[in-house]
Amino acid sequence: MEVKRFAIDLPAVNCYLVFEGKEGLIIDPGKAAPEVLEFIRRRQLEIKAIINTHGHADHIGGNSWFINKTKAPLWIHEADAAFLGDPNLNLAPFLRQEFPHVVPDRLLKDRDEFKVGATVFQILHTPGHSPGSVSLYSKGILFSGDTLFKSSVGRWDLPGGDRRALQESVLKLGRLPLETKVYPGHGEATTIEEEIKKNPFL
Predict the structure, then answer these.
(1) What is the second-level CATH architecture of the domain 2-198?
(2) Beta strand 13-20 pairing with 141-145
(3) Alpha helices of the chain — where are they, by DSSP H?
(4) What is the mean pLDDT of the chain?
(5) Closest residue by Cα to residue 65 from 77, 56, 55, 74
(6) What's the CA gap between 199 and 166, in Å, rounded?
(7) Reported pTM
(8) Could you count the other beta carbons within 10 Å of the beta carbon of residue 177?
(9) CB neighbourhood size of 156 (10 A)
(10) Which of 21, 135, 139, 157 is most deeply buried (CB count within 10 A of its CB)?
(11) What's the CA gap between 138 and 134, in Å, rounded?
């Protein structure tokens, strides 16, 4: 399993390309990003899905463009599906973004599983930053969206945010194996062990 991170525009969002063999997954395409597409084509990857860890504009702005270029289906948690077409929820005006509404192909639920190559991922519902925030977990690796950052956590004062739910979600992630590498929606990668030692929310 390989992970390629692309920092997409401002506010710098981590768009991840996860791949094994010739199968790939795009996580949080914040906007149209030719450099990501070029990497996909160079490695001759078949994109199995585009996954939004949640429905804020800086994580979904490139959905339509990537769907058009890769023909991959779009997945998002059922509780954030409405964010895709509602600027008041996804904050597109605040971030000065405009993009077409895309209807998701699959509505995710807690504990859903899928494969990239031979690697099995599990969806962990981690609400708080938004009602339908999810993290993607496989043994030794976690994509935490805007739930858990290095030494911090996501905001809870946005539409649908809930501080208590976020705290519970962060503690849930804190129970994962210590060696788990964490790839957040913004900023640098970290580990569960490092966050337990240094993150005040854990």
Answers:
(1) 4-Layer Sandwich (3.60)
(2) unpaired
(3) 34-42, 57-60, 63-70, 87-90, 163-174, 192-198
(4) 96
(5) 74
(6) 14
(7) 0.96
(8) 11
(9) 17
(10) 135
(11) 13
Tens digit of each residue's pLDDT (9 = 90 or more) over 135-165:
999 999 999 999 999 999 999 999 999 999 9
Report the residue count for the chain. Answer: 202
Average pLDDT over residues 169-178: 98
pLDDT of residue 102: 94
Q: Which of 145, 199, 156 is nearest to 174 (CA)?
A: 199
Structure tokens at 48: 């199995």
8-18 pLDDT, tens per residue? 876 689 999 99
The angle at the Cα of 141, spanning 168 to 190, to the nearest 5 degrees, equals 75
Task: Round to whole Å and give the CA distance between 83 and 54.
Answer: 8
pLDDT in tens, 84-124: 999 999 999 988 888 899 999 999 999 999 999 999 999 99
What gap in Å lies between CA 87 and CA 84, rounded to an integer?
8
